[in-house]
Here is the input.
Amino acid sequence: MLAAAGVVAGGLALSGCTVPSFGASPGDTTSSRSVFHLWQGFSIGALIIGGLVVALIVWAVVRYRRHGERIPDQHQYHIPLEMTYTIVPILIVLGLFAATMVVENKEVANPRTNVRIDVNAFQWGWKFTYPGSNAVVVGQTTQAPTMVMPVDTNVHINLTSSDVVHGFYVKAFNFSRYALPGVLNQFTLRAVATGTFFGQCTQLCGLYHSLMWFNVKVVTPSQYTAWLASFHGSAAATAAAAAAAAVRQQTSSLVPTKLATTTGTH
Amino acid sequence: MVDVLERPATLAEPPHEAHGPTGLLKWLTTTDHKVIGLSYTVTAVIMMVIGGALAEIIRAQLASPNGTLVSLAQFNELFTMHGSVMIYLFAGPFAFGALANIIVPIQIGAPDMAFPRLNALSYWLYLTGAITMLSGFFTAGGAANFGWVGYAPLSNSLNTPGAGADLWIGGLLLTGFSAIFTGVNLVATIFYLRAPGMTMFRMPIFTWNLLVTAILILLAFPVLTAGLIMLYADRHFGTHIFSVAGGGVPVLWQHIFWFWGHPEVYILALPFFGMVTEIIAVFSRKPVFGYKGMVFATISIAALSLGVWAHHMFTTGVVLLPFFSMMSLLIAVPTGIKIFNWIGTMWRGEIWFSTAMLMALGFLVTFLIGGLTGIYLASPPLDFFTHDTYFVVAHFHSVVMALVLAGMAGLYYWGPKFTGYLLNETIGKVQFWFLFVGTQVFTLPLYLLGLRGMPRRMAVYPHDPQWQFLNDLSSVGAILIGVSTLLFVANLVVSWKRYPAGDNPWDGQTLEWFTTSPPPHHNFYRLPPIRSERPTWDHNHPDHRALPHGHRVEAPE
Ligand code: HEM
Ligand SMILES: [Cu+2]
Ligand SMILES: [Cu+2]
Here is the structure.
């Protein structure tokens, strides 16, 4: 049974695309794809076990409905059967755990990286800083600041919070992590496709939690270098000014304009 | 072994009824566990209706991406109070305060709880706590709005200055003490007040589950109490236990909260598991299949539940993932044993589809969905993916709605015992279908919504209007559930003193079905001999005792 679970999990890792998605999607990072395969493996297991249990219930309900006043046999124990449905689930659980560990170890590994982004969450926005360059992107609520990162590159994220707990969540990455005050959370993202992906705070953080948006823009490495360079020297000042102006214009009708000034501490 | 079975456990004649006060005064001063239990039941059901009403407003707000029914601030209050009312004021007190209070002493042949006055205190603390927590709505700043988990530092006095938050803490402290006292009472009652012959392994499963629940309460609730006092001190006495600025650790709150919070999941669930176990056995006309396995499964669920709290904190990045993952996955094993034992109980039985049995079956299917999706969440990579999205909301609503179905089963099954009157079965069955179908229509879309990236606790979702369809579907389910609640209330009105129940309307198996409905002041005029966990059944069907251990007989077809 353990072997069977292993085979299912392993087989899935190889043939992910022919298996149904069970509502999830492969996503756009290397990890998100392994997570997706794990998801498929769990779903197959859940459907088999759930299907079996439902079939048993339906059978019992249909077959053993009351007909008269007959009193059925009063059997109460069946040790071999009980042992079976204790031991088999333990083996299944071990299989699920093994599959989990394979994916988890990949996901939380900290490979060597040469791109680093410091992500700071605050009520109610995000600040993306690129150490070693002048690049800083900051915005709040529906301004949805954009985190730019290169494709096919290990990107090291340092996640912090300036006030309460926030959640850094990008649906396309099948991944989330808390931004905790007083804690430096680190993880690695490796995007496999370019594009712009929506991100959002997932941990309740107060009034504008529903609107604490951001975007992740995955670009080619050369575009990325060019983007970083645009912040250099005098360009930096102009870019920052332009960004600030844009920020002021974008302020959504959903957010009272005074909000734009009240979080100025960040 | 000493043969205690022959000891006369009967009174020569019915005892004199106590000549206490009647009416309102009786209700205010009573220490009778049945009256207290009834007060608990009524109060908890009212809380369920309040919590449900709050949920309906939430669902109405979410029916469109830019809902304007309530403001962002009000929305935070709504889901916070919905979750808090449902967990702290409905599910818990209903599980271990309402039916437990009424049924456990009778099931073990006791005249009352071990500490009747403490029992009364529990109820009054609970009622006071409930009123305290709800009164937050009437303060200037509104009710608590930091989620039912009150994560620090959002819950500190800087981020949430209002009185609503303090009332939430105060109300929770009071209901926490109420739970602890009930825990003490149940443990003492079950250990010391069992009738002659009622050995531990002859206790009905419902009583067993409440014993284990009570022990879990005693282990977990004091931790919550301590945490709440720390939170209050941080808010008002200048301590910095949970604030970075003063050298404190915000995540500590999460550890404390979930060290209580996960056992709490089982404190809520085990009593309902117990109800369903009894109901399935009675309506299948069989003994509980794998009785001992059931007891051991309950004990191992409780033991494991003390070591899994950090599965709520996988995405904090500061907990040991493999340990908490393995422990959490393992809980599936004893839970699976229970499910198979329930099916084993029905197997080759003669199933009577009363409302109570239908509700129990509804529980079984709904709980299966909630349990299976819980296994996903025990896997950290899958939890990173779904944490704080609607997938989690869907998962725990499958579970809690299963508990609501089980609670309804309990009310239809035991209600006649303590009121003396049956509920209308036809309305009951219609109510069942509304509740069961409504639950699935309400929860299943939420799973997909979570997978499509909708986070929980969103007052608006303008950037992805595609989420609207699933939200609307879910709201339809919520309406069906609302209708089922109204049908239940209607049933109470229609059936009021209409269908006398008699002592044993369901051919029940355990001691409570041996006494009158409602039971007399100290519960029993006489007791049958107790030679198994089904004394009433053995008495009524002497030729159909349970078959001995391991014995198998092919059913005559
Ligand atoms: C009428 C049936 C119910 C409906 C329609 C309903 C609906 C909802 C909705 C829409 C949310 C908010 C999700 C969000 O904004 O993130 C929610 C949250 C919640 N519900 Fe329910 N619910 C129902 C029954 C229950 C029951 C019976 C319980 C517990 C016994 C419960 C416990 C909770 C909890 C703990 C939360 C989380 C609150 C938070 O995020 O702080 N609900 N429910
Ligand atoms: Cu947030
Ligand atoms: Cu838990």
Observations:
- The mean pLDDT of chain A is 84.
- The longest helix of chain A spans residues 30-63.
- The longest strand of chain A covers residues 115-122.
- Chain A touches chain B through 83 residues (CB under 8 Å).
